[in-house]
Amino acid sequence: MTKIAPAVVILGNNSIPVAKKIISVLPGAQLYGLAGRTCDVDVSFTEFGTTLRELFSNEVPIIGICATGILIRTLAPLLANKRQEPPVLAVAEDGSAVVPLLGGLNGVNSLARQIALVLSVKPAITTTGDIRFGIALEDPPTGYCLANPDDAKSFMSDLLAGHSVRLEGNAPWLKKSSLPFAQDAQRIIQITEKQVVSTSTRLVYHPATVVIGITSLNCSSRGGSEEIAFVQKMLLDAELAPASVAGIFASTLDAPNPVLQAIADALNVPIRFFTTDEIAAVMSQNNTVDVAKALALAASSGQLVIQRQLSDFSCAIALSPLPVNINTTGRPRGRLAVIGTGPGGSHWMSPEVQTILRNATDLVGYSTYLKLVGSLGKGKTWHESDNREEIARARMALNLAAQGRFVAVVSSGDPGIYAMAAAVFEVLEQEAKPEWQGIEIQVAPGISAMQAAAAKIGAPLGHDFCTISLSDILKPWSIIEQRITAASIADFVIALYNPVSKQRTWQLAEAKNILLRHKHPDTPVVLARNLGRDGESVQVCTLKDLVPELADMRTVIIVGSSKTRTIQRCDGRVWVYTLRRYDEDKT
């Protein structure tokens, strides 16, 4: 299972001191707190059961500072596959007890010991083998894979019944245990990268010591089936177990090649990259001109096992003396996510965006928008810039991602509406740096200001509408004038973005004049400012009463169509909506 940072879940402020002790020894862990009962948390939730089941389904380790019963009853409907269950622990509010509940095959006992140590208590571990021998055979440490997990339980039962065990191969983590080792034992634990037969009396662990270096001159769109079969045949000929493959290693120049990722996916291993300078240094040290060989040696610091070439595709396999730490060997494929936080409040932020923010290493954006991410920005590297520096900001984000970092470019509202998504793709096209081509890019949508404004006041966008920015920084006013005129003649509802700024004070007044040539003076107009933030306001006026003093850059203005209506409310306010039909007799 992928190592995911745990969620520490609390139901009241009394649990915060214990929670913070736990988080101090768990890098990346986040504090989840029940809304209305907790403060100073990373994530606030309202539905305990829904939140816990969502975390569990996403394989997030759960540390609940609460009674064991509530955790068991909440997660019981999801219990189906013990091999997929993340660690789940219950911790007493005062820190006096640490009880591992689920995830025995995924490190729950190790996590319990780690937490118990910082709380100065003894974990309530009930697994017999773990208690007697200090080890769980079904849960090897990172860097080792158990080939026959179904035999582990009976194997441990034999040892508990008095049988001894013989160790074949190097495994420091096993030697540190209290297992009953004996040279003449009939039960065997074998550590090998070779493809061997496992049995109920022979547990086989494959260490992550096999590295595969690949270079390909052809950026193929065939899907890589031929190359995948070629690599698999090389492993078979070398009698190496696929489970021992630590990863695929390639040059950053080859990162855009989909064949590399296809091979990594087929072997279910990560892919890592070395720069051309790093590869050149290894080539010089080992007196070779072969890039694939240099990659394999750079990743393994060991010896070459096999090397072959298929047309312009070259593959080299090497063995490392120790399991390869994939987190410190090469660099991952860079990721760049352009996200929208929504208008302001965290409750408008999508789960997809929240997940990206939790996992990102770097946040890039206008300082005002970066502050909108709240506690989700904790522990990230911030790269702040002025609001008008979109192109420089996009370039910085792409360069950071090219270094193997996970970069989130933060916009408010939706990133694809007058925001950073277009800027990123503009720079990507115009500058077209080779090192950017291998970056994984995604755009995560957010609730736009016009959607939030419409929801606050009713349904003014209930029929055809358009959006027009009044900023003439990136386009001439003549174009803006044409669009306002065309949209008004077509009887669109119009959402006006960037209506007024300190430098631009005349555009809104001029836009009003254009609108009045084609729209009735009593057309409803909605002005929504600071949505989801302090100082939020939503007001309604008529088109004839619209004045620049009512708006600023934090305001979105929705100008109705001929079918936009207002409904008076008993509290003196109004609803605004637009008819769905133009044949009013059918409404």
Question: What is this structure's SSE topology?
Answer:
Layout (H helix, E strand, L loop, with lengths): L6 E4 L5 H8 L6 E5 L8 E3 L2 H10 L4 E3 L3 H8 L12 E4 L6 E5 L5 H12 L8 H6 L10 E3 L5 H9 L4 E4 L3 H4 L11 E5 L10 E6 L2 E7 L8 H13 L7 E7 L6 H10 L3 E4 L1 H10 L5 H10 L2 E8 L2 E7 L11 E2 L2 E6 L10 H9 L2 E5 H4 L10 E5 L4 H13 L3 E6 L8 H12 L8 E5 L4 H9 E2 L5 E5 L7 H13 L3 E5 L9 H10 L7 E6 L7 E6 L12 E5 L4 E5 L5 E5 L9
Parallel strand pairs: 1-2, 1-4, 2-3, 4-5, 8-9, 9-10, 11-12, 12-13, 17-20, 17-21, 18-19, 18-20, 22-29, 23-24
Antiparallel strand pairs: 5-6, 7-10, 11-15, 13-16, 14-15, 24-27, 25-26, 25-27, 28-29
Walkthrough of the structure:
By secondary structure, the chain is α/β, with parallel strands linked by helices. The protein has five domains: 7-126, Rossmann fold (3-Layer(aba) Sandwich), CATH 3.40.50.11220; 144-207, no CATH class; 210-331, CobE/GbiG C-terminal domain (Nucleotidyltransferase, domain 5, 2-Layer Sandwich); 334-447, 3-Layer(aba) Sandwich (Cobalt-precorrin-4 Transmethylase, domain 1), CATH 3.40.1010; 450-586, Methyltransferase, Cobalt-precorrin-4 Transmethylase, Domain 2, CATH 3.30.950.10. The chain contains 18 helices and 29 strands. A six-stranded mixed beta sheet has the order 3-2-1-4-5-6, with helices on both faces. Helix 10 (276-285) crosses helix 11 and helix 14 (390-402) crosses helix 15. The radius of gyration is 30 Å and the shape is globular.
